[in-house]
Amino acid sequence: MRLTKLGLLVAGMGVAFAAQAVEVEVLHYWTSGGEAKSVAELKKMMEAKGYTWKDFAVAGGGGENAMTALKTRVVSGNPPAAAQIKGPSIQEWGAEGVLASIDDVAKKGGWDKLLPPVVSSVVKYKGQYVAAPVNVHRVNWLWVNPELLKKANAKVPTTWDEFFVTAAALQKIGVQPVAYGGQPWQDSTVFETVALGVGGADFYKKAFVQLDQGTLSGPTMIKALETYKKIKPFTDKNSSGREWNLATSMVINGKAGMQFMGDWAKGEFMAAGKVPGKDFLCVAAPGTANAYTFNIDSFAMFKLKNKEAEKGQQALAATLMSPEFQELFNLNKGSIPARLGVNMSKFDMCGQKSAEDFKMASTKGTLIPSWAHGMAMKSATQGAMFDVVTQFWNDDKMSAKDAAAKIAKAAKTM
């Protein structure tokens, strides 16, 4: 009797182990409307391949909370199979020796031909693929409620001078001109867009990619900071701590005229049943029409003790890069596919414009990484920059010249 029980127990453990072997745990921070929809589709695709999806969602738009959770898990020797990581952070994790190579999957799928070099370089460590890119986001968008602009008899701004005229016109008729979320990552998202519009692509690259000290503390940076601070009177007093999607809903619901945000905001408009070109407009932020700040979402694969789980990782990597997923995912998310050659006919005018501008900027040399979204500098440097930008936004006594000096100092943080 005891032997039978023991046999059943061992058999049960075997079944449990088999179930665990095909479980793929994925850490991400896609928890809002359009994003959550995309994750649900990925889960469906993985389950159709016979894998159990274990969701490890950590809320917080900029991903800071998710990265804290990831560090805790990796340090404890229990990493998830995959985690949503961006830019230089992939290189930092690679240097720690904790990432798994998915080069076999990439070679089989011909990723080198499917990905633009600016994308593939982000997801490789020492020449080997360690992450699968799922999209390209454009960060330098301005989202506009055209009905409110019409009421204010104001035009869609293409320059900073025009922007402040439009903002004043909206304010005059009692409409909140700018929907703003006062969180560090959002402050820097708006600031980098302003800096690009004021200084241009070459200035941006010199300042935020090369971290040139003279450029960071120079007159163009001071002008960019002054322009950024001029936006503040057009935001509301309740903006502090507001999540980005709640700011987007202010534009959707006619409570605010404009929002500076990457194209993940489009997912919120679409989830609310709004039509691009009619209910909302997507335009390049003032002064930035010829440039494209990009943010690429990727899933990095971590070394696992369970060799069976590696099959799940490889299946996940192949699924993430499949044209079916890239189309479906980006239609929901508001971004464009990372892989080239995906049919864009199902995409709306904003998606098609983004794809066109991505190609245009890559030929003009104005395709530039978003530092506010972890694509241009180490996380410690980025964190120090965030602190200065947020401090400047909230401190009415700090001069733009002092803020520029602090930004230059922050750039030395490694």
TrEMBL record:
It is found in: Periplasm. Gene3D superfamilies: Periplasmic binding protein-like II. It comes from the Bacteria. The keyword DNA damage does not apply. The keyword Zinc does not apply. SUPFAM superfamilies: Periplasmic binding protein-like II (SSF53850). Keywords: Signal, Transport. GO terms for cellular component: periplasmic space. PANTHER family: ARABINOSE-BINDING PROTEIN-RELATED, BINDING PROTEIN COMPONENT OF ABC SUGAR TRANSPORTER-RELATED. Part of a binding-protein-dependent transport system for a sugar. Belongs to the bacterial solute-binding protein 1 family. This is Probable sugar-binding periplasmic protein.
